[in-house]
Amino acid sequence: MTTNGFKLISEEFIDDISSNVKIFEHEKTKARLMAVENDDDNKVFGIGFRTPPHNSTGVAHILEHCVLNGSRKFKTREPFMDMLKTSLQTFLNAMTFSDKTIYPIASRNDKDFHNLMDVYLDAVFFPAVRTKKEIFLQEGWHYELKDKDDKLSYKGVVYNEMKGAYSSKDTIMYQEFAKGLFPDSIYGNESGGYPYDIPNLSYEEFVGFYDKLYHPSNSFIFIYGDMNTDEQLKFIDEEYLAHFEEDEIDSKIEIQKDFDKERDFNVSYSISSDEDPKNKDMLIYGVRSGFKYDPVDALTNSIIRDTLFENDGSPLKLALLESGIGEDIDGLYTDGMEMGLGLVAINTSKDKKDEFKKIIEDELKKIVKEGMDSKKIEAAINKMEYNIREAENFATKGIIYFINCFDTWLYDKDPTINFKFEDVLSKIREKIGTDYFEKYIEEKILNNPNKVIISLEATPGMNMEKDKEVDKKLQEYKASLSEEELEELLEQNRVLEKFQNSEDTEEEKNTIPKLNLDDIERKVLEIPTEEIKKDNHVVLYHDLFTGKINYITLAFDLEWAEKEDIQYIALLSDMLTKVSTKNHSYKDMETELFLKTGGIDTSISSIVDYKNPKKYYKKFRVSSKAIGEKSKDMFGLVEDVLLGSRFDDRARMKELISQILINLENQILSHGHSIAILRTQSYQSQVGMFNDLVGGVSYYDFVRDLNKNFDDKFEEIKKKLVEVQEKTFNQNKLILNVTTDREEFERVEKEGEEFIKNLSNKELSSVNLVFDLEKKNEGITSSSNVNYVAKSFTFDPSEFEFDGSMFVISSMLSLTYIYNSIRAQGGAYGCGMGISESGTVHMYSFRDPNVKNTVDVYNSVAEYLRNLKLSKEELSSFIIGSLNKFNPPLTNMQKGNVALTMYLSGKTTEDLNRNLKEALETKVEDFEKVADIIERAMKEDYIATIGNNEKIKEDGEVFKEIRPLNK
After folding, report:
1. I need a labelling partner for 408 at 20 to 30 A (CA). Which of 138, 237, 457, 723 fits?
2. pTM of the full predicted structure?
């Protein structure tokens, strides 16, 4: 059967995802297309290409950025950004993997969905970058030289993104793992681009890569949701594919040749120049273990990693930690057709490599001989089953399906296999109790010659030395240029700057498809909530379909906490489920959790009072989920974790504090913008200081001190944890938040009340917690190659009144002036601003090569806003682009948690409706009002930066003080 140029290859209703799945082939070009038909109004379109990289210049990644910067039909500089700021998209992005590049979009509005699909198809098949080199220079890399006497440097968005990525230990160890396992394969290359290789990519090579691979014959097209499939096929064929002929595309992925014997080698990685390298090395053990397109093999691989390497009860992790090999042990895997399986010891010594290998292989031999723990296998399967069934709890589940289908589709296997997860889970469960897993370990790990043992030696200041070499090479190159060549380079920068500063013409703007306000469903998020008041606590119930999975959150009151308690409460949150309890050893805890539940998560939250922003509520949240009949077991485990956790195992406590510190450092180096924002707010507001104490730089300093002085402080740590544990888990002022089907609620409420009866009901007095605030304005130096620059200010409620127009204006600024100045021109990977309902204005940059220049941009935003001239149509577009904030796509679990936060803050659906009305009525005069607010906020000058040691010191005038992260 053929329809609209597409031949139907297969059709099947797949119960596991409640969808009718059709596979097509385009007759003229042989493009592949999958249609997943169901009643989901959050529709998804995606197109992907097989893009194997044959070096580490990042050509596939740079191309992913560039194709979205103008095309044949859509002639503005950045149609992607135009759609981001003016559409109702629920997902809009592009992603580069090790062997593919994908372009997914989603929207719940039919017209918007069509517009986005049109923009993306034109972008990938007719991009402006093929003839407009400036796009490549901006997004990839270029020689930066504004004045003849300036130093020559590299700049580019992807260049700085990857400099930031390679500031993280995680990126380094994963890439060295892949390089070790796949030395002769594309999987040994860095598809994102290794920063020091990116400048080797020429524009001509870049265009050649596009011309070779971005063709319908090498494409994979995906549509999902409640739509007319024939209409979509007709559009895709007539507007795009029919303009091409079939082509032979060489995008084949060669398999890595088998090793004659295991590979053993050493590499170095950079740490901060002022950091002690002792015991900061990493050790990696890994194997090539099969092919991802075999779903049973892929799931087995995940189960082995989870049960043996990753969780705190894993036998290999335990054996290595108990031997003192490293401060933390984690599992590793690779992304691609051929799977890599391994583990890494973090914060160790390269001299322990032989011992590391011996412990692993002795433990594996023991497991093969004695057999794997079937309970651990079943728990790992349950854990993965929750993840698969809930589509990773991602609200736009079609995006997850699109990404997952490539595990087989990209390698010319059945693209529907991963949608039939019941069969795969059943096959795996049948193997429990057999010798299947032991044989897998024997064959794929112990007796596998395709093995690597790698040491990564911590080398202080290595990146600084590399950067000096790069700088020397750049200045030598500049000195070698003739006057004519130097002028050509200056002219290239002038042309690039003109391109970046140019305004799109009205004619160009009119090529971008737009929605009208009449196309918009004016609806805010409404979540059913029933409040049931008990004697000393409250039950909130949200009647939502959850497929008989019961979701609970317990919100415990923390108003009793004194200053000296706060950080120990945060430490308690980080330790629960990882220490032994009254009924379970920590070694068995994860197994118990996933045999009976979908896990237990804990966190500390602060919720600002919507009506009185000077007031905020401190809560300790405990969340869990379980299939209906297991909800009683869930409450039993929650009780054991909260009331029965013990902190008297000295060795375990030391391990945990080291692991918490490692995780905090990784978070700071990879998401430093959010930590820097917290830091600025700690200088100026009570809630800001609280948040920094429980999750920011202050908490990092606290944990670092405990780790350094553990032996002296152990008794104090134990005593304080027991003390805050006893006070935290109290039934007074407790909120039990339940999200489930109506027929499940009665049971969950009853079991929840039985649990609550066992909690302390001791009356605790509320404390008026007041922190001493100091405007530190810090530059916090680290081993990072890039910077995270934040400014913020919180207004007194008497000076600030929020309205919905601020959503519109802050969104517009983030996606126009701030984006153009900091990302497009400045080379940062990300940036933005926000104005909160509680009166906080913040601005931030992400993986930014600059510091002072970025601060100057923040300080100029108000002036830009005052000089802005907007047409009625442009204002209308910006209003539309902000409306998703009022009714975002959420899973039903997420809705339950949002409803809890709204309840605690006092914000209502009526408030949302009022803000929506204000947003829809945004006027030009509102811009002047917001300009005044921003100007005042920036003049108050609360700033924090986390980043590169040299750059922070170079721009030291910005800061009041400079300190190392690891002081």
Report:
1. 237
2. 0.95
